[in-house]
Amino acid sequence: MMLSRFVLAAVLVVIVAFGGTTTFMYLSSKQTHVAAPPQKPTAATPRAQATTLPGALYLTQSGAIYRLTAGRFHQITPEAGWSMPSLTPDGSQLLAVKYGQYWSDVYTLSLFGAPLRQITFNQARTGMLDPSLNHWIFYPRVAADGVTLWMTYDGLKCDGCYDVSPAIYSMPYGGTIRQARAWTDGGYYSGGDQQPIPTAGGAIYTKYDFGDKYDANAEHHISAMLWFTNRAGSYGRELTTPGEDCRTPSLSPAGDQVAMVCTYGKQVSYLTIASWNGSSLGPRTNILTSLLVAQPTWAPDGSGIAFFAPGVAAGPFQLWFLPREAYTPRPPSPPPTPTPGGPHNGPLPTPTPPPPIPPVQPIQLTTSNGFDATSPMAWLG
After folding, report:
1. Ordered mean pLDDT values, 10 residues apiece, the chain (381 residues)
2. How far is CA 230 from CA 57, 187, 233, in A?
3. 3-state secondary structure 47-69
4. Which whole-number Å values give the CA distances from 83 to 107, 121, 139, 268, in the listed order?
5. Which residues contact 145 (CB under 8 A, 6 or more apart)?
6. How far apart are CA 268 and CA 30, in angstroms?
7. Can you tell me the distance from the alpha carbon of 373 to that of 31, in angstroms, rounded to the nearest whole number?
8. What is the pTM of this model?
């Protein structure tokens, strides 16, 4: 009971501090509590007919991190506020966020969940008396160079202030938070800049802002856009428009495509893919429009995309997988082979075209869990 209160308090503080408009509130507004509580993943394994995913997939439920391998879940941390796992570039360790009562910190874990190092210490000495003195970190990721840690951090607020502007920060992976520097300015009570994805020339991230600056009613709604920055302190560049309302980017293993979630300002959540050339996105293609998609994650072998979505209307988020055949163009069917034989005394019969190939559908891997749709997945090949 005490742990539940701590986790609830942590989430409430984040929502209040970020102006009630972050990804947390966006996702929580789109599902309701159901009568049957979600089962632990270890008690409800994927259905027998579901596809077995390659490698090891790390995901979060109820403050614990689970590892999915060969179709079975293994709980690798206790239910103690763990969330947002990511992998080091060499795949030898995990990074994860651990929530305190009014703060959060980044840890390095073994692949089996054992804490190896606490990277940040965001609880102030008097933070229990004045929570504004504490800090929050989310979405840690180590860049491909293995020495730079990217994250969302509320370091732009002043001590004793509640004016929180979460921004994109980087710091030496082996250093301390005192060495962190802000790459972006998170804005004012808009939800800020979230979920950085390191790239060769900088980082892609989600910026929450007050609608379109050309929209007369912009101050009445929040929209999400993907942005790119390649220099600390620079203004950065928009990759998507406010009308597309896109968020939670995920870079493909080859680094040439980005999967994201776009809502187009409606109560929908499409899985969308665009090409990526290192500085800009190509045309968007909506791959899934029938599910409330969250946290798309590419398979390391390129075989498809895992994501969260409710299995039933207003239900908790389940794990799904979309094979790459669903979004990769199929080669054209070969023409029918003519019937062998001698000369014909008339025109050849019209060949019968092959039957159309049915579209590839997403596969629901779980039915009774309740995964954290605000926490990205980490996928080890």
Report:
1. 38 39 44 67 71 93 97 96 98 98 96 98 81 91 97 82 82 95 82 93 91 54 91 91 96 97 93 97 96 97 97 93 89 59 59 68 94 98 93
2. 30, 18, 9
3. CCCCCCCCCEEEEEECCEEEEEE
4. 10, 16, 9, 25
5. 89
6. 9
7. 11
8. 0.84
